[in-house]
Target: cAMP phosphodiesterases class-II:Metallo-beta-lactamase superfamily
Amino acid sequence: MKLKVLGCGGGIGSNSHTTAMLLDEDILIDAGTGVGTLALDDLLKIDHVFVTHSHLDHIAFIPFLVDTTGSLRDRPLIVHALPATLECLQKHIFNWHVWPDFSRIPDAVRPYMRYQPFAVGETIVLGSRRITPLPACHAVPAVGFQLDSGQASLVFTGDTTANDGLWEAINRITNLRYLIIESAFSDVKHDIARRSGHFYPALLADELNKLQHDAEIYITHLRQGEAELTMQEILARISRFDLRRLMSNQIFEF
Model:
């Protein structure tokens, strides 16, 4: 498996894009503004979008993706998510007011887009690739994902805060190689981090003590204007692991 980071920022501007990652050539993990960096030929190869949760920075480019490619494809784009997330997309985005309902265009039998619900812990198998939604704790229903090639696994937590279920699931993964985990706020903003369901360095340090594997760990969702401060706080608090900042265009092969 090959994962390319299209966007991993907590905001936009100055070449920062919100969360989106391209798995091989045909799968998106979230669809934030990073999707807009792809060429049309690349967009046409995408058959699946796996969505962690319904917040705009993770779903903003699903409408543009299906609108741009729908009439040029011979099969629907499949959007995989929790039932609550799919309901939110249907009710608040693809509702004919904000955007057309592409699950019924050109008709309900041959739509440009199809919704596919999943449950936490339910593995979706696409060829030799296994994608498993993991528990997350956020302001809205959310998941992370285990991406398993058979040889190794990468875990992307999505947006989450302290969550014992996540660590229980991760610690059961015997071939974990990479962990991408968020820290959306610096320590001084711990209150808003807690209220919005995000990590901050002090809490992240406590939670990483629950990880029972050695893995390469990358920090994502750093906010514009305080990314350097947040990374400094993380590195000052955590010495057990080799922690690095996730960067756009970074590629993981596993």
Q: What stands out?
A: The chain has a mean pLDDT of 97. The first helix runs from residue 40 to 44. The chain has one domain: 2-253.
